[in-house]
Amino acid sequence: MLDRLEAYVNSSPILLSDVQKYRHLLKLRSQIDPLFASSSIAQKGEQANNAEIIDALISDKLIEKEYPKTDSEVEQDISGIEKTNRLDRETLKETLAHEGYTFEDYFELTRDSSSKRDLIEREIRNRISVSDDDIKNYYYNHIYKSTGVPRSFHIKLITIAASSYKNSAVALKIAKQALEQIKGGESFEEVARRVSDDSGTKDAGGDLGHFTEDQMSDAIRNEIKKLQIGQVSEVFGTTQNYYILKLVDVRSAENERLEKMKEEIRSQLLAKEYEHQIKLWQERKKQSAFIHIANQPTVQPLAPSKH
Fold first, then answer.
1. What would the pLDDT profile of 99-153 be if each residue is shown by its tens digit?
2. Which of 12, 130, 218, 246 could form a disulfide with 269 if both were Cys (CB 3.0 to 4.6 A apart)?
3. What's the CA gap between 100 and 104, in Å, rounded?
């Protein structure tokens, strides 16, 4: 069967035979490739189309270019795997052959996977973090909703009263300036102590304490629904009073269930964030690469590569 060019990445061709081999190695790739499990191809399996596989191969070549692996480095990796699993080379080859693969297939997949692990360790891992607030936000936005258990919200509020200034327009301007200061990095609490007109809470950094939804005014309830834990609202209110709201925490009788699910949720969020950061990295590299896919316009580099 004649081969044909499917794509070109910088100076590296992607052939139809490469696409066919990728499809043939799906099962083996799922065992070795650290990025494969989160890919759309992993979900679709044999149903993945050639265009999706070509895109995956383009990304693989970009990673290999940034983190190349010599044959001796790959051999060292395989020797380590053999030692860990108490296998000799012949047994490994026999096991691969029984599954329909060659040692050469395994060798190249190990090279590819080693490059990806370097990418993860050097550029991705330090970008990933999932805080306890992230876990709470996910829980209360995706899992809690179906339970109907009442929640309490820890709220901080800055109040700018029009009566303290010449008119409502001046009060609104002060409120907007306060919000910009918070967005600029100043703490909500310090801004509240300086500008809030609520004498009962300003010294406590605007801290109102905990409220259930039925204890809140309609205006505050509407703003709370827009916020994640730790977030600050836009300026809202009337011509008499303008407000800035911070959602500090959420509590409910579901806290025990939340604690039990905490690590499971953390793992899910970490996996999603890894996938997101990998995609961002791939898109950045595509912008500085010469990419041509058969029957599509050539993608010229938008910026020179740093490597």
1. 999 999 999 999 999 999 999 999 999 989 899 999 988 888 888 765 667 788 9
2. 130
3. 12
